[in-house]
Amino acid sequence: MKNLITYFLFLSLGCFAQNKVEDNFYEENTSVNLFAFVGKKISVIEFDPNAEKVEIDSVTGEKIIHKTYSLDKGFKCKYLISQKVFNDIKKDTIDFVAYDHYGRPGFEDYENVLLYISKSDDGKYYFHQKYQYDPLFEDKKGELFGCFTFRTVEDFLINSKLESFKIDLGNLIVYDTTTYNEFMLKTYVPKPFYKIKNNKARPVLGARIKELFLSKKQTNFKKMFEN
Fold first, then answer.
1. Which end of the chain has fewer CB atoms within 10 angstroms, the N or the C?
2. How far, in Å, CA of 59 to CA of 178, rounded?
3. Exposure pattern of 162-186 as b/e (b: 16+ CB <10 Å)?
4. What tens digit of pLDDT does each residue of 16-60 get?
5. What is the 3-state secondary structure (H, E, C) of 148-211?
């Protein structure tokens, strides 16, 4: 009887292990100046990217004034790293700058977000890859997932080859398609990834962190990985 109970316990644990979604995906290639991680916001503080920077010449002692001219708003961001996805920053928290032409960065609105950053040429700071992030949500099992983004027809072909599954986010993500023509509908909110009703597009297929990263790797950051 004892052996029988042990057998069924082992069988049930085996089934559970097979059904559990793997959420610890990590990939590394230090030749690529890119870091991807799941982050949680600590702070996002706006700063003036056009503020003068004063430096004293070490030889002449003269004051050197550096000026920049940017139409973007600047933000100093501090995030907790809850999961490293691509390349190891070797920190639990990360400070980086972000720039946005339209207002505050959209990624700050989400409790969990897959962020993409790079290191400056002089190695002194990290900066956010402009507009590149994936909002993340929790399913009933507490596993994180997000939605593919689409910019081109090629994006659809690539994302269609990656693993996805049915989701229901209610009104968490809704796109107004009133002004979309047929080409825009097929490109930006394509079926079967989106369902469109009453000029509102809602995602109905989601993807895990691994697939979200692989999607960005083959689309937005394709040139980085070709070098």
1. N
2. 62
3. eebeebebeeeeeeebeebeeeeee
4. 333 344 468 999 999 999 999 999 999 999 998 877 676 777 777
5. CCCCCHHHHHHHHCCCCEECCCCCCCCEECCCCCHHHHHHHCCCCCEEEECCEEEECEEECHHH
